[in-house]
Amino acid sequence: MKITDAEAYVCHMPLAEPFYPTWIPGIPSMNNSFLLVRLLTDEGLDGFAAAPAFLGELRGVPELLKVFLVERDPFQVEHFTKVFRSAKAVGIRAWFMEIALWDLIGKATGQPVYRLLGAFRDRVLAYASTGELREPARRAEDALAIKEKGFKAIKLRIRSMDIKDDLAVVTAVREAVGPDMDIMVDANQAWPIHGFGEYPTWDLKRAMTEVKALEELGVLWLEEPLGMYDYDGLSTLTASTSVGISGGELNNDIFDFRELINRRCYDVLQPDVTLACGILNGKKVAGMAEAAGLIVNPHTWTNGIGFAANLQLMGAIPNCTFCEFPYDPPGWTPEGRDAMLSRPFDIDDEGFVRLPEAPGLGIEVDMEKVRAHGEKVL
Ligand SMILES: [Mg+2]
Known about the structure:
Elements: E1 3-19, E2 29-41, E3 46-52, H1 61-69, H2 77-89, H3 98-109, H4 113-116, E4 123-129, H5 136-149, E5 153-157, H6 163-177, E6 182-186, H7 204-216, E7 221-223, H8 231-240, E8 244-247, H9 253-262, E9 268-269, H10 273-291, E10 295-296, H11 304-316, E11 323-326, H12 334-337, E12 352-354, H13 367-373, E13 374-376
Parallel strand pairs: 4-5, 4-11, 5-6, 6-7, 7-8, 8-9, 9-10
Antiparallel strand pairs: 1-2, 1-13, 2-3, 4-12
The protein binds magnesium ion.
Magnesium ion binds next to loops.
């Protein structure tokens, strides 16, 4: 099989309601915006990939990389990994393209990707990953609805200027859902986006103070409490508490993760195959982490295709404990998140996300919708 051509679309799929992500303070999202790539082959198969792209800033990437892909065999993922790594050297974020190769490999062999990479499980326990900062009473109400829907765990955003406000949200939710539901919190300190709304900047002292209080509230993990390269601060914090410390969503390639693992910065590593490393490197990171006794719960907060790709990695590794399920209605819903797919992902009756049985990434991209909301750039 040979890759014969590539197409790319800059898409803006409207959300049902504006969404206010804590990690981009001051700028509401009106759309689910992404760059979609479709690789075509001489066997008539197509493979899909997508990356979040706010204004189409990635539009030239598929065209540039097409010359490295066309006429090549998509099975040579190790070879392409080196291509995507070298793209980074000239400032281009290209890892997301790798998942289209796996989609092709899966379709060519008639197998879902996770089965080609080890098939450890066919479903993963989900946690509802919320994205907005909300008042304690409102968030407690949301959490009850989330519990009612069947989720066994919820992740809250804690990004208030004052520690008291962070703890008030967690306390209200704990009181509402009771002791049985797992609660995670995300401080979004690893890669702050500066320039619009206000946000706190944590240091090690604040992280240590706050994590003590979170310990008493029975929080399972605290995500991104410090900068993504503050290896010393992270390892000190991780060693100091029984709350899990997690992060890594924008750390890059196997080399960042080698440092994070060797220095024991995190208990739970969260590489994202579309942002950080690709699926094959994600498997390698999981192997390094397994040897060190650490958990790998991939980050999924991009879009439906990114979710599908990270889910395949979860199915293929033994040291994954939870599937991040981005969910914060009314702004961020499965329908809005997975708007480019024929069917949105959902949880089953027991709160698990099932690995799709269809080959490749196991998704069906709705090209009619992509064309309706996308500009063809290649
Ligand atoms: Mg996060």
